């Protein structure tokens, strides 16, 4: 058995390390297996899916499923594929992520550096907003959207996600900003900086880690949402998650086209998968930065 190393950490011997790696590899394969099956199935032909092995590689290799999912498959009465709904999700996700992150940063800045009487109560109420279930949000927001003329629209859906996400982004930013020394803001005020200039020239430049956390969190939550999308939009305004559900449950021929379904599911999940792969390390870095300072 190996002894402690120079850093004082007790490490296991070769057998222990091999066991750890074996467990990790098994876990990785276990969790990646569904993705492998989805990917290979999406490139198979229907006869191969019907008579072949679930884990076999595509033979022959076919992109028919992807082409149909993107531009031909029926989602209810509409047979134009998922591409229109994909861009619908882009249209409301980007503004909702940007606005909820910006307002969360401003709220966190005010609640930590420009405190006022009752600011802790306001933060407590916002914190309570993170525990409100989606279902409790539906009727009040439906009433508000109807009164302001944004019912069944992507603009209304962006507003819903912005409002719902502000509680989370405020929590993240407030906990990060409370660790920044107040002297930094006081020095800026002595130099003549006001509320806005202090926020944009002092606070925002050092907020990259927590802003990345907010963007990644909000993007994955909003893009993957189904409930708000199916309630607050209709017809051609549906997001891609709702369209995928309609695609899977629509069959004009009575034959289940698993290659199209799998391709559609991957198309739907691809943006969040890219975000996790590209920016996942920034998410952990941002959470860790706030935790250490706190």
Structure overview:
- With 294 residues, the chain is an all-alpha fold.
- 71% of the residues lie in helices and 0% in strands.
- The model has no long low-confidence stretch (mean pLDDT 88).
Task: Spell out the key features of this protein.
294 residues; mainly alpha
**What distance lies between the first and last C-alpha atoms, to the nearest angstrom?**
38 Å
Strand composition percent: under 5%
Mean pLDDT over the residues: 88
Low-confidence stretches: none
Class per helix and strand makeup: mainly alpha
The succession of helices and strands, N to C, reads HHHHHHHHHHHHH
- The coarse overall form would be flat
Percentage of helical residues? over 70%
Count of β-strands: 0
- In DSSP terms (H or I, runs of 4 or more residues), the helix count works out at 13
Main sheet, how many strands, which sense, barrel? none
> Any idea what the radius of gyration is?
24 Å
Provide a compact summary of the structure.
By secondary structure, the protein is mainly α.
Give the helix/strand layout.
Elements: H1 14-42, H2 46-51, H3 64-71, H4 83-113, H5 119-129, H6 134-147, H7 154-177, H8 182-190, H9 195-203, H10 208-223, H11 227-232, H12 240-248, H13 258-293
């Amino acid at each position: 058995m190996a002894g402690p190393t120079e850093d004082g950490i007790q490490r296991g011997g070769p057998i222990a390390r091999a066991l750890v790696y074996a467990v990790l590899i098994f876990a990785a394969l276990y969790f990646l297996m569904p993705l492998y099956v989805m990917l290979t199935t999406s490139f198979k032909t229907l006869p191969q899916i019907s008579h072949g092995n679930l884990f076999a590689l595509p033979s022959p290799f076919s992109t028919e499923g992807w082409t149909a999912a993107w531009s031909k498959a029926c989602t209810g009465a509409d047979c134009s594929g998922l591409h229109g709904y994909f861009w619908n999700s882009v249209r409301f996700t980007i503004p909702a992520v940007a606005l909820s992150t910006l307002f969360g940063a401003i709220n966190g800045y005010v609640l930590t550096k420009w405190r006022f009487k009752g600011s802790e109560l306001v933060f407590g109420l916002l914190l309570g907003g993170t525990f409100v279930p989606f279902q409790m949000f539906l009727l009040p927001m439906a009433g508000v959207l109807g009164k302001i003329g944004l019912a069944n629209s992507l603009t209304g859906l962006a507003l819903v996600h912005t409002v719902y996400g502000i509680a989370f982004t405020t929590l993240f930013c407030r906990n990060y900003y409370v660790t920044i020394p107040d002297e930094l803001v006081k020095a800026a005020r002595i130099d003549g900086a006001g509320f806005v200039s202090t926020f944009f020239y002092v606070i925002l430049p050092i907020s990259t880690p927590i802003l990345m956390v907010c963007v990644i969190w909000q993007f994955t939550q909003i893009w993957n949402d189904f409930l708000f999308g199916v309630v607050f939009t209709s017809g051609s305004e549906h997001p891609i998650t709702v369209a995928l559900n309609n695609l899977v449950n629509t069959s004009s021929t009575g034959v289940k086209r698993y290659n199209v379904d799998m391709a559609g599911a991957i198309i739907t999940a691809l943006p969040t998968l890219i975000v996790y792969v590209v920016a996942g390390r920034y998410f952990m870095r941002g959470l860790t930065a706030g935790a250490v300072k706190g």
